[in-house]
Amino acid sequence: MRPSRREFVKWVTASGIALSFSRLAPAEEPGFAARQTLPGRQNWNPAANGAGRIDGVAKVTGAKLYASDFRAADLPGWPSKTAHAILVRAPDATHVYTGMDLARLSGASKPSVVVTAADLARMGTRVPEFYKGDLFCPAGTTPTYLGQPVALLLFEEFDAFDQARLKIRDGGFVKFAEETGAVVLPNYGAFRFTRVAGPTPEAPDVYSPVLAGWVNPGKFQNAERPIWTPLATETGAAYAKAATYGEQIRAELAARDPGLLVLDREFETQSNDPMFLEPESGLGWYDTGAKNLELVVGVQSPYETAEALAYVLGNARAPFKPAHIKYLFAYMGGGFGGRDHTPFPFYVALAAIFLPGRPVRLAHDRYQQFQGGIKRNAFKMRTRIGVDRATGKISGFAADHVLDGGGLANYSRNVATVGATAAIGIYDIPKVDITTVALHSRGVTAGSMRGYGTLQPMTALEVLIDEAAAALPLDPIEFRRRNALKTGGKTMTGNPYSVSVRTPEILDKIEQHPIWQQRTQEKARGQQGGIVVGTGVACATKNYGSGADCSLGRVEIDPQGRIAIRGDHVDMGNGIGTALANRVATYLGGVADEVAVHDVDISGTYGALALVTSGNSRTMNQATQDAVGRNPRWVPVISTATFASNGAHVGTQAAAEAARVIFRFGLWPAALDLWSLEPTNPVAKQWEAARWKDGRLVMPGLAPLSLSLIAAKAHARNFVTAAMTHASSRWAWSRATFPVAGQNWTADIDALAVRRGGGKYACLDRSSVKYPPTENNRFGTVYGAMCATLVRVEIARATGVLRIAKAYSVLECGKALVPEIVLGQAQGAFAMGVGFALLEQLPPFEGGPGNGEWNLGQYLVARGSDLPLHDLQIEVLPPVTPDEPPKGMAEVVMIPVAPAILNAIHDATGRRFNSLPVTQQMLKGVLS
To answer: How far is CA 744 from each of CA 113, 426, 672, 762, 768, rounded to the nearest angstrom?
Structure first.
C-alpha cells in the first residue's frame, strides 16, 4: 500500500528507514484508528452519570481492541489472508544447540519458510544495546538462556501451522549435542548505597548517595559476586569511602551492645510470571513493491519499540530492508511490566519480512508466554536491623541483595537499584548500608514487573519489622509509628520526598479498624475449633515515575463543544484513556468525545512541536543540558514507556496542560465576550476562580454558560481552540514560559503549539526553560505513594488450608482521577499479592518455564476462592488539598499484601517463614 503525500511528510527517518505512526484514515473505517479511538464514533459518554470508563463498553462487548484480536482481513488495504508464525525456543541451556528436527514437520505440517541465525547474519540485522544478545541462538553454540529463540517457522496455511505447533510441543524438536554447562556472562550491575545521617534531623548528612553520587565496586572475584570490601587501590576512592562508612555501620550492628536489639535474617522471594490475560501477539505485512512494513503490536513502550526496530533493520541488505515502517499500536490485555521493552515485536517484523507479500501473525500461546515472557526477579536477601531497646527507634540497617536477572539484561540493573533504595520502606533510619547485584543466569529473562524491585525487599522488611516489634516488645503499629518517615525526613539516598507523606494517618486508620481491634477475640475464637486465626499488618511505599519521564498530549475542541484528546501513554488495563478524559474535563467542562491513547506520532499528531532530543537524560551533565536546552525544540526525552505507577501522574500531564491553555486563552476570553466584559474588567483576571458545573461555566454574579456556546464563540473569535504540549520530569517537572495571545504563559511543560479557531497549529518558542538539575539523577525517589494492609487468616489445623477471612487496605494517591479504577487496581493488586505470598512459583532453571512445558496446570494463580471477595475493604484517603496532583498508585497497593499475610500466618501459627510462596503443605507441616 503506497503512502499518501500527507502520510509521507509525517514519516521520520531513523537508520535510513522512515517511521510512520499515523493511523489508518477514518474514511476507511471500520478500521484500526476507529477501533482504537474511544468512545469514538459511538459517542458513549461515561460522564453522563458521573462514572464509567471510556473503554468500558468496547472491552466488555468484545470489540476488536487488542493486538491479538486483529487479522489481516480487519485492516483496510491489507491482503485478506493471514499467514502464521511459530517462534521456536531452546528448552536447554547447558548443551550445544545443533538444529531442529524438521523431519517431524512433513507433509501438511511443513513450514513454508524457516528463519535461523544464519539467515539473520545474511540479512544484516543488528541488536540494540538494551537487547544485547543473539536474536536467534546460532547452531553449534550453547544457548545463553532457557527459552532463547532459535528459529521462526512460517506457514502460509493455518492448518499447517496448527498441526506443527502440536508436533513440536514435547521439547524434542530442538536438538542438542555435548554438554558444556551454562554460558557465563558478566553480571548486569552492582551498587552500594550508604547513608550516615547528621547528629540531628535538621543537620546535613555525613554521607549519602545524593551528596557523593552512586557507587559500584570495581573489583570482582573469579565468580559471580563482587568484592564489597573498601579496597581503595582496586575500587577507587568514591567506592572506598562509601564502603568504609558501610562497614562501620555493619560493625556497630555486630558489636553485641545489650541496649541494642539486633536481628539478622535471610529471606528469599521467587520468580513469577506477570500472567496478563493476553499473551504477546502481533501482526505484520511486508509489501516488497512499496518496501513498506506495517505492524500491529501491543507494547508498553511504543516509541522505543519503533526506534529499536529501525536500528535492528537499519543495516539490512536488500531486499530485507524496508524503506518505511508503519506502526499500528493496539490496546493490550495487561502489561504489568512484561511488555516494557520486550523484544517480541522484532520477531513479528522478521516473520513479515521473510514471508513478503503475506500478512503474518505471531502469537504466543500460554506455553510460549511462560517460556519466553519477562519474569519477576527472584531475590535472595540478608538483612540486619538494630533497634534501641529504650526508645524503640531503629538505629541502623544493613542488607545484601542478590537478584537473578535471567538470560537478557532487560531492567534487572534498575530493579536492583530500586530495590536497594526502597529497602527501608516507610522508615526513617539514620544509618543504612545496602549492597545489591543483579546476576546473569541461564534462566528465563527477568526484569520489569509490577512492584519493580520494591515488592521483594519490602516483603522481607515488613516481616522483620513485625519480628522486631514482638522482641522489644511493642505493638506492631506503634513500632511502625515511632519509626515512620515524616514530611521533610530523608529517604535512603538522602533526599526528602517532594510530595505529601501520609504514613502516620494511614497507620491511624489501620489501628482503628475492626480487623485490628478485634484480633484478640478472633484469635481466641479460633482456638475453640479446628482452625487457627491470625491477624497481620504491613505498610509500604512505592515511588512513582522513574526520574526520566515525559508525556505528549493534544487536545482540541470544535465549535459544537466536542472534545478530542490524543496522548502517547498506553492503556494496559490501567484506564489511562478515562484518566485523560477526566483530567481534561476539569479544565474544559466535559468528558471527551474521542480519546486516542498510545499515539506516538511525533511528526504527525505532534508534528507542530518539531521536537528533537540528544544525549541520555539519566547520565548527561549539567553543562551539556544547559547547552542543548538553548534549542527551543530540544527536550530530554521525546516519549517514554508506560508502567503501572506513572499513568496518572505522568501520562495525563501534557494533555492537562494543553487543556489549561485552551481554557485560559480560548474558552475564558470567549466567556468574557458572552458576558460582555471587557479585558480590563477585574473579573477578567479571575479565570482560576471559574468552575464547571453540569457542563456550564459558573462565576458568581454571572449567568452560567454552556460549553457548546462558549466553544462556538471561541471559534468565531479565532481564540485558542486546540493545543499540544510536551512535559518532562526528572523528579520534578520542567517549566517554561511561552508567548500566548500577547501574554507570557508559564507552565510545567517544555514545548507548546496552539491552534486558533479552525486554523493550523503554530509552535511557540519558549522564552525560558528550567529543566530539573541533572544531579536529581542521584535521587532514589522524590515521589511516593503509601499503602497499608490488614489481613485476617483462618488456617485449618488438619489440612493447612488457608482462608483469608477479611482484609482492609488503605491508601493515598493524591487526587484520584477515576476512583473506580483506583479501586479496581487495588482489588486486582490484592489478588496478585495473594498469589505472590501463597501460590505462584517458577523454578529458575531446567524444571522451570524455560522448558516450554508450563501452563496454568502447573502455575497457580489466585482465583475467587482464594480471595475475600465480599470481605475486602479498600479505603482511599481524600487528597490533602483539592488541587493536589494525582499520584501513581497501581504498584504500591500490591506491596503490603504479601507481608501482611505472612505476619498473619505467624500470629496464627507462631512460625515465621523466610521464603515464598508459603504453601498449604508448608502450613500443614507446622500445624501437625
So the answer is: 61, 41, 20, 16, 11
